[in-house]
Amino acid sequence: MTERRTTRRYDLSLPVVIRASKDADSSMQRGKTRDVSTRGVYFVVEQGIVAGSELDITITLTSEMTHGAEVLVRAMGRTLRIEERTEDGLARTGVAAIIDRFDMIRGEAATA
Question: To which CATH superfamily is domain 15-111 assigned?
Answer without folding.
Answer: predicted glycosyltransferase like domains (2.40.10.220)
